Amino acid sequence: MHSHKHDHSHKHDLTQNVLIVALVLAFLFAGVEAVAGWWSQSLALLSDAGHMVSDALALALAAFAAWVSRKPPSLQHSYGLGRAEILGAWVSSLFILLVAIFVVVEAIRRMHQPAPVAGGMVMIVAFLGLVVNIVIAWILTHGEQSLNVRAAIIHVMGDLLGSVAALISGAVIYFTNWTLIDPILSIFISILIVISSFRILRESLLVLMEGVPAHLDIKQVGQTMAEIDQVRSIHDLHIWTLSSGVIVLTAHVEIDEFKSWNAILNNLKELLADKFHIEHVTLQPEMHIHTLHHIPKKSS
Asked: What is the pLDDT of residue 7?
């Protein structure tokens, strides 16, 4: 028996439009920061421009993934292409991880070979970048919070921190002429971005490898299902994330008699939806037999 509620088309449209608007803003300001960073010799500004470019590419990837994920199921992809968003989140996070590593390497080189920095220009552009990143972050947080969008938000938050770092760097250099602050802040912000990227990488990899969602305990789910009246045991239980917000469960359900199956099935579906928010369910009834690997009722 199969149950699947899928009404995401409007949300996907909104998500795609939100990502495109954020993408255009990111690309435009990345160009401004790159030119200003090159002219002022500020690594903090250049690294922020690099993060903005990576953001723009990540947003482009996220928008493309959101578009692909809307494709209907086909003979070859019977579940559809919803997992494209998860793949997009993984690639996006990996990309910003590489950008952050590059910035750290360049910052270490700059610490050994200091260069003069135009602090006033850095402050002005960094402040504008901060405003742009706040606008982009606001736009993204008002869309659907899929893993794909969350990965894009991580990019933007990293950029926002980068703008703050560049602003502080510009102010310190302008008032004290201490240029070492520029690479030091660049390294600090890159480390924060690496930590955030690892979180999304781990979560998206869990989905791609069809792991049990982190917020669910498969043993607890099976034990709770086994407590339903007339259910003898649960076995061959599998739970995984199909795409953002869509969790799939399959299981074999041992019962005493098939004539009660419709009532048992409805109870199980209602339980899974209400308690665990799992609505894409495939359950196979079996007459009660002893199995080696099963989840029986708890002993009272």
From this structure: 46
